[in-house]
C-alpha cells in the first residue's frame, strides 16, 4: 500500500481501529447525498465548486478563532463568486479531517540523521526527533475528536446566524479590509446590503434559509485507510456504504494507481469523491479511473481535480477533458492551482506566487472553453490568518516578507486578502 506509515505497534493500531469503529459517524449519509446532488449541478454547468482550507490541519493551537476566520474567508470568496458571476457556489472545506499528508520522500535527513517524514498530525509530529516522528495510532483518535469539535462549530456557525447574508460585512476581517481586495469586497457588501433592503422594502421577507444560513460541507484526502475504513458505515436508509469521516473524500496524486488500495476503497463507498490529476496522467489513465470509480456515470459522484502547473495546463488538460467527455462520465472538473506551482524562493522558503496560481486557473478556463466543457470549480489551500506564505497579491507579499509570518506545517497557503484577490479574478473569468 502506498504512502502508509510503518506503524511500530500493530496490536495498538488494531485496538484503535476497533475503538474508532464504535464511535458515532461524523457526518450522515443523507448529507453526503445532498452534496452529491449539489455537485451534480456543478457537473451540469449550473453551479461552481469552491473547495478550500488548510494543506494540513494542526493539533497545536487548536481553537475556535482559526476555524471562524477560515470560514469567513471561504464565505467571502463564495459571495464574490456568486454575486459577481451569478452562479451558485457549492462550499466544501478542506477541514475537519485534513490531518494526513502524502510525501514525496518517506524519510528526511538532517545533519546526517535520517527519520521518517512528517505524515500529518494524524500519524506523527512535525518536530525532528525520533519520538516525534514515530507513528502513533492514538493520533487517529485525536484526529477524530478534533474533527468532531470542528464540525460542531462549523454547523453552529453556518446554521446559527453567522453565515446570514445580512452579515456579509462582518466577514471582512480588519487586516483584509485594509487591502485593495478587502475594499473591493466592502463595496460589493454594500451592494448586497442595498439589494436585501430593497427586497425587504418591497415586502419580500428575507427570512429564508437561503439568506439566513448556508450549506457547508467537509472534505479531506482519505490517505490513512485504517481511519477511513473504521468510519465507513452502512446507511440504514439505502443499505449503501458511506465513509462518514467527511461528506467528500479525495485520492491524492500519489495514490491514484488503478490497482492500488485507495482506488479499491473508493469503489466501495457511495460518497461524492475526488481524485487529483497531475501532469503525468494520460487520457487512458483518467478514463480507466472514471470507469473504476464511476461505473454508473452518476453526476456529482466524481470530481477530477487537475493540478498541472501553470506552464503545462494548456497543453495537458484539453485531451483529458475530451477523453472523459467522450467516455460519457458527467464529472466535475476542478482546478487545484496550488500543487503544481510550488518553488523555493531566494530566501529559502517553499512558496507559491499568486500570479502562477492565477495563470493556472486562467489556463484551466481556456482549456475548458476550447473543448466546450464547464470549468466547474477551484480547489485551494488558504487560511483566514494574515500569514505570509505565498508571494504576490494586491497587498503584495515579497520574498523578504515570507520570513515574517510563515506558519504552515506543510504547503504555503493563501492569506485572507490573497484569497479574495483570487476570488475576484475567478469571478471575472466566470462572467
Ligand atoms: C494536497 O492536496 O495537499 C496534496 C498533497 O495534493 P496532491 O496529492 O495533488 O499532491
Ligand atoms: Co498541500
Summarize the structure.
The protein has 431 residues and is an alpha/beta fold. It has helices at 10-22, 29-43, 64-85, 130-133, 138-159, 174-177, 180-201, 209-212, 225-230, 261-267, 283-293, 313-326, 354-371, 416-430; strands spanning 48-53, 89-94, 107-110, 113-116, 216-221, 232-234, 241-243, 248-251, 273-277, 302-306, 332-335, 343-344, 350-351, 377-381. The chain is built from 14 helices and 14 strands.
Notes on the structure:
- The chain has 431 residues and is α/β, with parallel strands linked by helices.
- The chain has one domain: TIM Barrel.
- Helix content is 41%, strand content 14%.
- The protein is built from 14 helices and 14 strands.
- The chain has helices spanning 10-22, 29-43, 64-85, 130-133, 138-159, 174-177, 180-201, 209-212, 225-230, 261-267, 283-293, 313-326, 354-371, 416-430; strands at 48-53, 89-94, 107-110, 113-116, 216-221, 232-234, 241-243, 248-251, 273-277, 302-306, 332-335, 343-344, 350-351, 377-381.
- The strands form 4 sheets. It has an 8-stranded parallel beta barrel, surrounded by 6 helices. Strands 3-4 form a two-stranded antiparallel sheet. A two-stranded antiparallel ribbon has the order 6-7.
- The N and C termini lie far apart (44 Å).
- The structure holds phosphoenolpyruvate and cobalt (II) ion.
- The site of cobalt (II) ion (CO) has 5 residues, from loops.
Amino acid at each position: 500500500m502506498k504512502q502508509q506509515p510503518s506503524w511500530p505497534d500493530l496490536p495498538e493500531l488494531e485496538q484503535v481501529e476497533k475503538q474508532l469503529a464504535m464511535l458515532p459517524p461524523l457526518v450522515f449519509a443523507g448529507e453526503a447525498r445532498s452534496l452529491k446532488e449539489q455537485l451534480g449541478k456543478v457537473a451540469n454547468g449550473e453551479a461552481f465548486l469552491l473547495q478550500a482550507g488548510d494543506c494540513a490541519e494542526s493539533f497545536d493551537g487548536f481553537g475556535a478563532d482559526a476555524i471562524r476566520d477560515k470560514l469567513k474567508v471561504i464565505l467571502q470568496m463564495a459571495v464574490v463568486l456568486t454575486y459577481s458571476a451569478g452562479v451558485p457556489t457549492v462550499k466544501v472545506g478542506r477541514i475537519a479531517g485534513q490531518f494526513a499528508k502524502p510525501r514525496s520522500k518517506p524519510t528526511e535527513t538532517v545533519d546526517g540523521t535520517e527519520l521518517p517524514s512528517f505524515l500529518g498530525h494524524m500519524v506523527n509530529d512535525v518536530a525532528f526527533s525520533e519520538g516525534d516522528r514515530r507513528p502513533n495510532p492514538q493520533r487517529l483518535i485525536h484526529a477524530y475528536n478534533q474533527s468532531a469539535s470542528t464540525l460542531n462549530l462549523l454547523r453552529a456557525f453556518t446554521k446559527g446566524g453567522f453565515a446570514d447574508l445580512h452579515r456579509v460585512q462582518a466577514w471582512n476581517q480588519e487586516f483584509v479590509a485594509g487591502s485593495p481586495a478587502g475594499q473591493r469586497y466592502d463595496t460589493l457588501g454594500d451592494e448586497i446590503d442595498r439589494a436585501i433592503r430593497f427586497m425587504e422594502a418591497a415586502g419580500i421577507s428575507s427570512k429564508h434559509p437561503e439568506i439566513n444560513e448556508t450549506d457547508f460541507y467537509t472534505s479531506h484526502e482519505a490517505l490513512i485507510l485504517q481511519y477511513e475504513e473504521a468510519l465507513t458505515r452502512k446507511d440504514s436508509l439505502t443499505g449503501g456504504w458511506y465513509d462518514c469521516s467527511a461528506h467528500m473524500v479525495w485520492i491524492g496524486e500519489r495514490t491514484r494507481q488503478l490497482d492500488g488500495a485507495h482506488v479499491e476503497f473508493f469503489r466501495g463507498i457511495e460518497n461524492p469523491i475526488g481524485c487529483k490529476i497531475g501532469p503525468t496522467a494520460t487520457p487512458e489513465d483518467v478514463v480507466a479511473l472514471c470507469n473504476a470509480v464511476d461505473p454508473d456515470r452518476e453526476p456529482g459522484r466524481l470530481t477530477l481535480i487537475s493540478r498541472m502547473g501553470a506552464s503545462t495546463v494548456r497543453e495537458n488538460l484539453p485531451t483529458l477533458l475530451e477523453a472523459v467527455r467522450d467516455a460519457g462520465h458527467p464529472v466535475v472538473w476542478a482546478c487545484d492551482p496550488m500543487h503544481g506551482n510550488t518553488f523555493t524562493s531566494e530566501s529559502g522558503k517553499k512558496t507559491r506566487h499568486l500570479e502562477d496560481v492565477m495563470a493556472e486557473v486562467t489556463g484551466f478556463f481556456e482549456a475548458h472553453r476550447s473543448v466546450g466543457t464547464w470549468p466547474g470549480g477551484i480547489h485551494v489551500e488558504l487560511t483566514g490568518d494574515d500569514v505570509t506564505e505565498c508571494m504576490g497579491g494586491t497587498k503584495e507579499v515579497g520574498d523578504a516578507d515570507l520570513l515574517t509570518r510563515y506558519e504552515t506545517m506543510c504547503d504555503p497557503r493563501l492569506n485572507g486578502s490573497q484569497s479574495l484577490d483570487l476570488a475576484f479574478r475567478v469571478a471575472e473569468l466566470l462572467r
